[in-house]
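User: Pupal cuticle protein, Amphibalanus amphitrite:
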Amino acid sequence: MRLAVFCCLMALIVADKEARIKNYQFGIEDDGSFEAVYETTNGISAAEDGVSYPGLEPETGNYVKSGSFSYVWEGVTYTVTWTADENGFHPEGDHLPDFSHTREHIGDISDIEK
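Assistant: Predicted structure for Pupal cuticle protein:
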């Protein structure tokens, strides 16, 4: 998990070779929950938390995660908040299109399980 967060952070920094990590915190608890926060000198910041729900069989279960990230582009700060769970990745932001109505057309994972 730390490697994934670190790789994402490094990919963002590549665009600005002068950027440095100002703040990086990561913690994982015995119950499988975690929190991660970072901020760079070029205005990128992100926070993420989640919890693991083990399944009844080995190698099953899921994570429920949520977080946000912000960045500055041409003087405008863009922020995306998101959740990710068994129903997929759900980003929201003022600059993103609203796909909330899509679920009405394609259904929900619980519709399949019936």
